[in-house]
What does this fold into?
Amino acid sequence: MLFELFGKYLIDNKKIDEDQYNKLEELYLSSRVKLGLIAVAERMLTQEQADEINAKQAIIDKKFGDIAIELGYLTAYHVSELLAKQGSSYMKMCQALSDLGIMNPQETEREFNAFVFELDGIEVINELKADDVDAYTSLYLPEKYSNYEVLMQIAVRTISRIVSNRIYVEKAEKVPAVSHKAISFQTMHGDKKVIFGMYSDDDAILKIAEGYAKFEFDQVDEDALDAVGEFINVINGLYATALSYNDSKVELDVPDYRLEERTVSAQSDLCLMPVVIEDKKVYLFASVN
Amino acid sequence: MAKVLIVDDSKTSRRILKNFLTQFGHEVIGEAENGEIGVEMYKNLKPDVVTLDITMPVMDGVEALGKIKEFDKDAKVVMVTAAGQRDHVMGAIKAGALEFVTKPFEENILKKVFEKICV
It folds into this structure.
């Protein structure tokens, strides 16, 4: 999610164009982040020190970290910290931007800080750098600490885990109801009254159906909506488990889906959150009372 | 190899389960979309194993379990559940279900459950 959202931010703020975004994505997906870049980004080394080590590495067959320790620039502890960050989404983004000559790590950090500031997410900047799906989801909800926050986090996380990890959220809004001809949803009753469901304007909902079923559907029909209903059941089951840790009990009702125009509403406004899955948009909606 | 009756209101879940069970070498001899139909089919088909989804319309899996056990106290029943239905699952185990599996189905777990109960 970090790549897609920060990438969109860079496009929207004219720091990169679409062509550069596509090249970045290719690099990002295949990149191996260099220790030197991480060390400079983390301010453990200056650029000059990193360049000196790189120059030595070109002539002696030793690892970057080992040379840095020999020169007294880093300790073994620093090197192990850097190694732990090599898989970091933020560092991969830094590496890709640097490799394309678009931005150095300091410039990337400035832009990322501005992106996080725009999201009002400074308090969770480390989580955002770590590509924490829950942190991003919360920031795109209409309000903080809402009743539906945990449910939406579970939903987005489950989509990321089971359907595709190439997803990102868009700004959610509160609506009095949702109306569509192919909605799948489920209610829960008990200590809380919950509605959770999804739909899409095109065949994007098939991403969910096929992600769950692991076989293809030709069109958005009742069979596909049934698969979506089962996926919703998985999400709501996980939510029911989360509630039970706080001694709150709910029962899952049978998932509801029909291929006809219908309107779903709740006691209070629904939270409606777009989620883009591999360039296709699905709308999640939820209400927790 | 076991003769299995699948009881689940979701056509998708029935298909996924049938695919896995057939792959493991079992034979799916019937499918029912709610507990009431499932109980009748159990009486007619007398499968070796029956899977019961918990949340179903008309008659849920827990009630169906009770009726199947009344008919056949040795019935081998596997409950199928989403997470968050722990109370129902515990109740079902106490009422005589042998095992449970959660959705989404995990091939290895399903295989081990059936290997265990088909001994």
Observations:
- Chain A has two domains: 2-132, 137-288.
- The two ends of chain A are 29 Å apart (CA to CA).
